[in-house]
Each structure stands twice: as structure tokens, then as C-alpha cells.
Amino acid sequence: MAKRKRKPIVAVVGRPNVGKSTLFNALAGQRISIVQDTPGITRDRIYADVTWLDKVFTLIDTGGIEPDSRDVILAQMRAQAEIAIETADVILFLVDVKQGLVDSDAKVADMLRRSRKPVVLVVNKVDSFEKYMTDVYEFYNLGIGDPHPISAVNRLGLGDMLEDVVSHFQESGEEEEEDERPRVAIVGKPNVGKSSLINKLLGEERLIVSDIAGTTRDAVDTEIAYKGKEYVFIDTAGLRRKNKIKEELEKYMIVRAVGAVERADIVVLVIDAVEGVSEQDAKIAGIAHERGKAVIIAVNKWDAVEKDDRTIYQVTEKVRNVLSYMPYAEIIFISALTGQRLNKLFDLIDMVSENHAMRVATGVLNEIMTEAVALQQPPADKGKRLRLYYITQVAVKPPTFVIFVNDKELMHFSYTRYIENQIRETFGFRGTPLRFIIRERN
Ligand code: GDP
Ligand code: GDP
């Protein structure tokens, strides 16, 4: 069995004005908006993928999470630290050499130390190592290890800092144990019925295998067997805990969703049928889309909707409209209250999970592409016509294809979409996004 790999999560914690967003932007760079066609999620970005040498990790700026404007700084920091401890594999604790060591830093350091999560202590605004180095030593007093001097603005010291960050990945479980069971994240806004759904799935005839506390994190995964097959459900961390209030904060909700989605292959996005689909749902869905996960949209509370024979089509159309960037997503109408269609939900999970991992032989792919090109002439520009030479699938989860062409510039998005549709016409790939990489070859 193959080992599961997932991207580690690194959370940046620190007081206001120490330079968290400056550091975030320096590390995430232009990679922040990789997916242009996902509305709503490239703004107010608080997470991004960072590549350092051969490592990739997800960076979260907890500073974007401001619990309450009336809150004092310490309360804010505590909340940040809690989120970081809950979600991150490594915590990057940022302090400011110009402000020096302050009391709230010490208190947060205590919290982080108790969490036993790897913490990298980073001292920012060390714009000149000669001038400020003696001030950096003061931070040894926090008792959480060696302080790394950096200047986020001048991009100084970032390499050494990142080296320390990535050195914690192995021990914190970048590779989880061998496991081929479908891993399903249940995500959605507060009050859409996520916990009701998990509880309903846990109840009834289905056998509860166990509650396994994650070895590397606080999240609790739920194993559920259905028709003799095991599934792992990944709650948005803290789902079944009482501290729901915090989830009301949109950014907190998003951070949790990122954490859960990252650990799953299949995402069930729960939407409230009574309230209808919203921009917030689109933001959460965008996380799954960007990360190439299989997606099922579960329209919940279907029992509470007054309906006639057209309602299901109207709601479907509305959902398709708001989530127009994921036409591949499956939609199911359920009730966590009555249990309606929960059996079908398992069938859907099986189907999209297979599609997400499906491999298509190169020969067949090239037949489809040749036929597609014959049916619809590729675009041309300034007398040069696009030529498609060869297509092959290079990865699964999600299925990823490389197409070799004569000139990348000529391969418009719409023609790629056309090829995608031809492939989908033959193989379906329902529930999973497909990715295309365009390469030039002469
Ligand atoms: P945040 O509130 O922690 O996200 O802090 P910001 O990233 O918004 O930075 C707060 C202020 O500190 C801004 O005016 C930044 O330009 C400044 N700043 C950030 N990094 C550095 C640095 O390395 N050196 C100096 N001198 N200023 C910095
Ligand atoms: P969460 O915040 O997403 O975990 O949502 P909860 O599971 O706590 O549910 C929020 C509210 O919606 C609770 O009052 C539930 O009883 C109610 N609820 C959840 N699922 C359904 C459903 O399928 N039908 C109806 N009518 N109410 C539901």
C-alpha cells in the first residue's frame, strides 16, 4: 500500500504589527492566487502554499483572524495560538525586535510550549544583524528554543528560518500511516448540520469502529463502516466540541476547513437548504476545488423545505450557479435529521473516490484527443495554428494530464476546457476536478 502524503500546515502566530502579513506575503509571493477562476477566495487570503527547496507546505496567517475588536491583544493572541495548536503541524511564533520582549509574548509562549507542537521562534525586523543581534538574545527567555533573526521586509534570514521549519515535518507526520480507506472531510458554514450529519452516520445500524485521536493533531477522526467497508470521516477540527462560537468567525472557519480538506481526498460540502447557497459556501468550496479534491455538495435539511416537483431542479440550478467553477461536483439532497438519502451518500462517496483515483491509458486518451481535434479545429493566431501532439495522464487525486503542444500561447483556456469535456464524455470522472498541464514540444 502506498503511504499517504499530505501537505504539512504551518501557522504564523504573533502580536499585531510584528510583521505577520509581511512575512506571509514574502513567503507566499505570487503563488497566492493560483486559481483565478475561484471567486471570493483569492481576496482576504489567509492561507497559501509555500515551496521551499523540495518541500511544500500550507502557510496560515492566524493574524488575519481577529476574534473581536473589543478584545484585548492577549485574548486575540490566545485565540490565534489555540487555532494554530489545533490545526498546524509547526507553529511559527513571530516577535518584534523593536518592541522587545513583552508580557503577552511570554504568556503565548507558555501556551505553545504546553501544546508540545513544534514551535519555531522568529524575531522580525532585524534589518541589520550587527545592530540588533544582542537584542535578539533576549528572546531566549521565552524558553521555546533558539530565536531566528529575520527581516521580513528585506527578506533576510528567511532561508535559515525555513530550514528549521521544514526540519520538523518528518517527525510531525508529513507521511501518515498506510491507509487506503476513503477519507472524507465534512465542511460547511456553522449551523448547516455538519455535526448532526456525523452523529446520524455514527448512529443507526452502522457499526462504530472507533474514535481514533489523530497522532499528530488534536482533531478526532471518526471511522464508520458501511456495508462492510470502512470510511474515515474528518471533522472540521472541534466539530463535536462545545466551542462552536469561534466557528462563527469566518476566517477561523476557513482555517479549520483548510485543515480538514488537506487531510481528505473527498470533501462533502454541507449546505443549508432552507437558507440557500451563499458566498460563504462558495469560499469553502473553493478550498476543495483549489486543492483538487473530489467534491460532493450535500444540500441538507431537505426535510424542512416546502417543495413541489420543480424545487429540486431550481435548487440545483442555484447551487450550480453560485459554484459555477466546479461543474463536476455531485449534488445530493439529504436530511441529517431523518436520515434521508444517507445510504446514497455512501454510494456517491464510493463513486467519486474511484473517479478521483482513476487512471486512463495513454492510447485511449490520444484517440479521444485526435477525434476532438478533428471535430473542432484548434484556434490559430497570426497565421499560426495550435497543434496538439500528445496527451498522457501523469497523476491521480486529482487526475492530472499533460498535453504537449507546439505553442502554449495558442492553447486557450476554452480549448483546454473543450478537451476536458471530451474526456469527461467518455470517462465521466464525476465528482472530481481534472487538471491539465500544457507543455511545448517542437
Ligand atoms: P502584522 O500585524 O503582524 O500582520 O504586521 P504587518 O505585516 O502588517 O507589519 C506591521 C508593520 O511592520 C508594517 O508597517 C511593516 O512594514 C513593518 N515591518 C514588517 N516587517 C518588517 C521588517 O522586517 N523590518 C521593519 N523595519 N519593519 C517591518
Ligand atoms: P453544524 O454547526 O454545521 O455542526 O450544525 P448542527 O449539526 O449543530 O445543526 C444546526 C441546527 O440545524 C441544529 O438545530 C440541528 O438540529 C438542525 N439540523 C441539522 N440537520 C438538519 C436537518 O436535516 N433537518 C432539519 N430540519 N434540521 C437540521
Would you kindly provide a written description of the structure presented here, covering whatever features stand out?
- The protein is α/β, with parallel strands linked by helices and 442 residues long.
- The chain folds into three domains: 9-168, P-loop containing nucleotide triphosphate hydrolases (Rossmann fold, 3-Layer(aba) Sandwich); 183-357, 3-Layer(aba) Sandwich (Rossmann fold); 362-440, GMP Synthetase, Chain A, domain 3 (2-Layer Sandwich).
- The protein is 33% helix and 24% strand.
- The protein has helices spanning 20-28, 73-87, 103-115, 129-137, 158-167, 194-202, 250-262, 279-290, 311-322, 342-356, 362-375, 413-427, and strands at 4-5, 9-14, 47-52, 55-61, 90-96, 119-124, 148-149, 175-176, 183-187, 207-213, 220-226, 229-235, 266-272, 294-300, 330-333, 380-381, 384-385, 388-395, 400-405, 435-440.
- A seven-stranded mixed β-sheet has the order 10-11-12-9-13-14-15, with helices on both faces. The chain has a six-stranded mixed β-sheet with strand order 3-4-2-5-6-7, sandwiched between helices. The protein has a three-stranded mixed β-sheet with strand order 18-19-20.
- Helix 7 (250-262) runs parallel beside helix 8 and helix 11 (362-375) packs across helix 12.
- One guanosine-5'-diphosphate (GDP) is lined by residues 14, 16-22, 63, 124-125, 127, 151-153.
- One guanosine-5'-diphosphate is lined by residues 188, 190-196, 300-301, 303-304, 335-337.
